[in-house]
UniProtKB/TrEMBL annotation:
Gene3D superfamilies, per the entry: Galactose-binding domain-like (2.60.120.260), Glycosidases (3.20.20.80)
Superkingdom of origin organism: Bacteria
Keywords, ordered alphabetically: Signal
Name used for this protein in its record: CBM6 domain-containing protein
A GO molecular-function descriptor: carbohydrate binding
UniProt xrefs under PROSITE patterns: CBM6
Organism: Streptomyces aurantiogriseus
Domain CBM6: 466-612, 742-892
Length: 897
């Protein structure tokens, strides 16, 4: 059904948010002159292109260990496969296969691909030996040990896939110094083929049920066909075919088809495929870029792992800190919640990168279609055609969301709701959504459900926002630099940057001022996000850590901001604050000195500032519809008048609905369970069943529970307990007063051994923290905390950690320190703490513990973890014996009704 278009361009004042909400509600005027037709993305709901696979959410070196990232982040991203190093391999700190295997599988993961070659240092791999046969003999001994270790893992071993060789054409069977005999297998394959056969039989001899992947080439060479011929002739065909696509989404589709043709010609049945490296720095973290890869990977029905260019343990620039996600994480969260089967999506420029691309599904059982798309700025029509009236009726409910780019290290809230509307299906079975003012860095999601049942539509979650690029701002003073262009389609190794340029100059000794001229529509409070970066190991940054700058509005109301650190230059995060503005024009300045607050220490680059009105759209409770949740067995119903959105979900006993709920910080929240009666249900938070009364009852109502939400991603699960509770939605808003938080400074605790109070980190609360915990259990911190009642509590640890191992690659190698936390003398629990990029940069990590009423003793120790065999240790300082620097503890009950 065609709608009128009052186009809102990407650079105009208001964004697509307001425009889209209005457009979806306004019928087209007949006989109206119209502009040229926009591009069109067509989704054919009558087609079936295969069961939804979900394979694009894989990760290379993305999981450091249990907690980095958190299990919430792993499960909520629906990570299907991980490729990682051999247990105790010296390539990088962390990511040891058998340490991350259990938490990964327990978080819903399918397979862990073990890079067996990563038992060696260096790249190319530095395998010892006087000649090729000696080197291969050494490798085979190490392979034998790896397989024997896997065999101790119980049922987890079923989730292991062995990768004996990685990029063999450029490594072990290439022409370099560390090769088998300096003969490339691409030219003369006999040596590699013989080695493959030996290693294959070695692994299968030790573990007959083992799955083996290969050849794991850097690209899909034509010589892979010869490998398949040899493998078939010698009965050593891999169980999974793997190669790398550091290319483009178009190459994914082309090469999968090319490989399938090789199989046919050789006479091999189709093998599962894992393209276990894909994407470049320019793509990673950017939803509008990554969705183009996702489209090609899902269409090809293969698994694929995001490439590892930077630090491990952050899911390839998806995870932030331990428990937060950026825009890329929320894209994969949306992708992983697809179900049913995929349908044909026709793009305006099929299979062409840097254009609008998408993937869509139809789940007949849920009566729901989902589409994710992106890759272009400006306008386009998204057309759903062949809408089955038996599934959807003659009216559909369309929820439209935006998943913005928030930087590599910038936390993102849940997707923005642009529109939530009921639309009549045209006589030709189509509905057209005119998307206006799209941003090429964003991805977008549409959820289509049956309409016309009296469902209450939600308002957009933001009403006015605008971006101001730093390169377009005015700079006065010394030290100015305009940096760029950064990442681009022709420079994919560089990092994506809004507008392609950024500005430097705010640094130690500078008198620079960066001025943004802004104009806002009304009086009010505005959220201001400064997208910025400081390289943590740069000389000027190393002194203080976070670079501080000074914000003023029209020369008044000074604020000091601490800007984000990153592992390299042009790695973006954001620092957020609020400003009070009256309707009209204003001048917002970022300065390197302020007459009232001081001077800048460090060196920062600025990408942009985002400004958005903090009105009722923003401050209203966040809405999470049950019919859009991850459902275990229940199916949505769409015949509940008075429900919000298109419908509700009846939860029979044991059925569950899981919601991925965002919180900007560790804090108390009011979680309201809106239901239509029918039964009762229990509540769980982050996998822990809450000790609160069951929600629900015989009549429509709301049960509100005060919960402690961790900063970032929270998993809230509602599980049917009796009869069938008809669950409508969750509403989540900040709260206070019900859950009492008690704060304890670490320096007030009891220190033993070498642990000591330090004043070297002025950004610690009160300027003091405790360091040198660990390197033996004698060096400990003990803090006595008081609980008002018995039960589960969150201990929020404010900490810093900047330990980094020497690297042999382009990858920085930060180390996740750990603390062994014991409560009241009980068994210690090991807690991993990701890098904060500087010891003067403090983050918070919430850990659930059981406390008794009254005084409880928390003891923090640490010691270096040995290798898997328990009696050797890493030789390259890749396992720290120390806990992080601990600043303070905050203790809060988990929940109260």
């Amino acid at each position: 059904m065609r709608r009128t278009r009052s186009r809102t361009r990407a650079g105009a004042g208001a964004t697509a948010v307001t425009a889209l909400a209005a457009l979806l509600a306004v019928p087209a005027a007949t006989g109206t002159a119209r502009a040229a037709e926009p591009e069109r993305l067509t989704i054919d709901l009558a087609s079936d292109t295969g069961a939804f696979h979900g394979g694009a959410s894989g990760s290379l070196y993305g999981v450091y260990g249990d907690g980095v990232p958190s299990r919430n982040v792993l499960e909520g991203m629906h990570v299907r496969t991980v490729s990682t190093k051999a247990q105790d391999g010296p390539q990088h700190p962390g990511a040891d296969a058998l340490e991350m295997l259990p938490p990964f599988v327990d978080s819903g993961g399918k397979d862990v691909y073990i890079y067996m070659t990563d038992i060696y240092r260096g790249f190319p791999y530095q395998w010892p030996g006087a000649d090729g046969p000696a080197r291969l003999a050494d490798f085979k001994e190490k392979i034998k040990k790896q397989v024997q270790q896997v065999l101790t893992m119980g049922d987890y071993q079923d989730h292991v896939v062995y990768v004996p060789f990685n990029e063999p054409e450029g490594n072990m069977f290439g022409t370099g110094q560390w090769s088998y005999n300096k003969i490339s297998w691409l030219n003369d394959p006999q040596y590699y083929f013989a080695a493959w056969k030996e290693v294959y039989h070695l692994i299968k001899g030790l573990d007959p049920d083992a799955r083996i992947a290969g050849p794991n080439t850097s690209v899909l060479y034509s010589q892979v066909k010869g490998f398949l011929q040899y493998a078939k002739a010698n009965d050593v065909v891999p169980d999974v075919m793997t190669w790398h696509e550091l290319s483009s989404p178009a190459a994914v589709r082309t090469n999968v088809a090319k490989y399938r043709q090789m199989e046919k010609e050789v006479g091999i049945d189709p093998l599962p495929i894992n393209v276990n490296e894909y994407g470049h720095n320019y793509h990673l973290s950017v939803p509008g870029q990554v969705v183009q890869w996702v489209s090609a990977i899902e269409e090809s029905k293969i698994d694929a792992d995001l490439a590892y260019w930077n630090i491990d343990g952050n899911l390839n620039d998806s995870a932030v800190e331990a428990n937060k996600g950026n825009g890329q994480w929320w894209l994969f969260n949306a992708y992983g919640q697809m179900s049913g089967h995929t349908v044909q999506v026709t793009a305006p420029h099929p299979n062409q990168q840097y254009t609008l691309q998408g993937v869509a599904t139809l789940d007949e059982a849920k009566k729901q279609s989902r589409a994710i798309f992106g890759g272009k700025s400006g306008d386009a029509d998204v057309v759903f055609k062949n809408i089955d009236p038996k599934l959807f009726g003659t009216t559909v409910h369309a929820t439209v969301q935006e998943i913005p780019w928030t930087g590599q290290v910038g936390d993102s809230s849940q997707p923005l709701r642009l529109a939530d509307q009921e639309l009549e299906v045209g006589a030709d079975g189509t509905v057209t959504l005119p998307m206006t003012g799209m941003n090429e860095m964003s991805a977008y999601q549409v959820v289509l459900s049956p309409g016309g049942n009296g469902g209450v539509s939600a308002e957009p979650s933001v009403s006015w926002r605008k971006t101001y690029e730093a390169e377009n701002a005015t700079y006065t003073g010394s030290g100015y630099s305009k940096n760029g262009p950064e990442g681009s389609p022709s420079q994919v190794g560089k990092f994506a940057t809004s507008g392609a340029y950024n500005v430097g100059g705010l640094r130690t000794g500078s008198d620079g001022v960066l001025t943004f001229d802004v104009e806002v529509p009304q009086d009010g409070t505005y959220d201001l996000s400064v997208f910025a970066n400081s390289y943590n190991l740069y000389d000027l940054v190393k002194e203080q850590g976070p670079t501080n700058v000074f914000l003023r509005v029209d020369g008044k109301d000074p604020q000091e901001l601490r800007l984000p650190l990153g592992y390299k230059w042009v790695v973006w995060g954001h620092t957020d604050t609020t400003v009070q503005l009256t309707a009209g024009k204003h001048r917002i300045t970022l300065a390197a000195k302020d007459p009232d607050l001081g001077v800048t220490k460090g060196d920062a680059i600025i990408d942009k500032v985002d400004l958005s009105l903090r009105d009722g759209h923003v401050t209203a409770p966040a809405i999470y519809e049950a019919e859009y949740a991850t459902l275990s067995a229940a199916r949505p119903g769409y015949t509940y008048p008075g429900a919000s959105g298109p419908g509700a979900v009846p939860l029979a006993k044991g059925d569950s609905a899981t919601f991925w709920v965002h919180s900007p910080t560790d804090r108390e929240a009011a979680v309201s369970v809106d239901h239509l009666g029918g039964g009762r249900a229990s509540l769980s938070l982050n996998g822990e069943k809450l000790d609160v009364p069951k929600a629900g009852g015989g009549k429509k109502g709301t049960d509100t529970v005060r919960m402690f939400l961790s900063g970032g991603v929270n998993k809230i699960t509602v599980t049917g307990a009796s009869r069938a509770l008809v669950l409508d939605r969750l509403r989540v808003s900040p709260a206070g007063g019900a859950l009492t938080t008690k704060v304890y400074q670490a320096e007030d605790g009891t220190l033993t051994g070498a642990a000591e109070v330090t004043g070297a980190h002025p950004f610690a609360s009160g300027g003091k923290a405790v360091t040198d915990i660990g390197d033996g259990k004698a060096n400990a911190l003990t803090v006595d905390v008081v609980a008002g009642r018995s039960g589960r509590h969150a201990v929020t640890i404010r900490y810093s950690n900047a330990e980094q191992a020497p690297a042999t690659h382009y990858n920085p190698d930060p180390i996740a320190r750990h603390a062994d936390l014991s409560v009241n003398g009980g068994p210690a629990r090991r807690v991993l703490f990701p890098t904060t990029f500087h010891f003067n940069n403090f983050w918070e990590l919430a850990v659930p513990v059981t406390l008794k009423k009254g005084t409880n003793r928390l003891t923090f120790t640490a010691e270096e973890l040995p290798d898997f065999n328990g009696d050797t240790y890493n030789q390259y300082d890749q396992r720290s014996p120390y806990a992080p620097v601990i600043d303070q503890l905050a203790v809060t009950p988990l929940a109260e009704k």
